[in-house]
Design a protein that fits this description.
This protein is mostly beta strands. Helix content is 11%, strand content 39%.
């Protein structure tokens, strides 16, 4: 009798154990999206959830293992262009080191850049033939010692005494650029999106643009005389692309 009871209890224990789902900690994946890289041809929203970013079209260059991107979000009140002729440190707002750009004695690579593997800024093309470092920025007069620039959506500091720079308001900067209309511009056709334009007038979110002739830049392959008003931005999110004839 005791043997029968014992066997019965063992069967109950085995059934209850089999009903429990096994836990395999090796299969648990801890995901950290804070530093998720941009994937080419992937549209993703930036941290402020206001502007889409097409990383395939908005990558400006890759240099020293770092991918540089521009963005549709307009930050600050204009753009600062740095002329780097000596080592430069980029600081966090608490003045701790964020990154650096150092000169190299190398004809192929001019700079040794220490920054995150993904950098989003207005336009960075460090290659020897260009040496372009443009950042969205606040007015230079905002701080007596530092320029306040934007990298990866955050404010950073650059010492004024360590660099030469030029500042352009957004309107002035846009008028130095060639403009591409995108599918986000409501009243633009696919044909019109193939042309290059210059900005004639800017009034808030509206812009009067005029197509530029092939003689304006070697990049211009198609031309048709077009002059029109467009909505070029929505709040601080631009709907057009900037390009320059370097």
């Amino acid at each position: 009798m005791k043997k029968v009871i014992f066997n019965f209890l063992m069967v109950i224990i085995l059934i209850s154990c089999n009903d429990k789902k096994p836990t395999n900690h090796n299969n648990v994946e801890k995901r950290n999206y804070s530093n998720r890289p941009i994937v080419d041809n992937d549209k993703e929203k930036l941290s402020n959830n206001s502007c889409l970013m097409d990383s395939l079209n908005m990558m400006t260059t890759e240099y020293g293992g770092i991918k540089f991107y521009t963005e549709n979000k307009l930050r600050g009140v204009g753009v600062v262009q740095l002329s780097i002729d000596k080592d430069l440190e980029i600081l966090n707002l608490d003045e701790t080191l964020y990154g650096s750009v150092k000169l190299k004695n190398n004809t192929e690579e001019t700079f040794d850049i220490k920054l995150p593997k993904k950098v989003i800024a207005r336009e960075i093309i460090p290659n020897t033939e260009y040496k372009i470092f443009c950042f969205d920025a606040e007015q230079p007069e905002t701080d007596s010692d530092f320029l306040i620039i934007y990298i990866n959506s955050e404010k950073r500091l650059v010492s004024k005494k360590d660099c030469k720079y030029k500042f352009h308001s957004w309107e002035a900067y846009i008028k130095t650029a060639f403009i591409h209309l995108t599918s986000n511009v409501a009243n633009s056709s696919k044909e019109e999106q193939r042309y290059y334009y210059e900005a004639l007038k800017i009034k808030g979110d509206s812009m009067k643009v005029k197509s530029v002739k092939k003689t304006s830049c070697d990049y211009v392959e198609e031309y048709k005389d077009v002059t029109k008003w467009i909505k070029w931005k929505q709040n601080s999110c631009k709907l057009i692309m900037f390009d320059f004839c370097y």
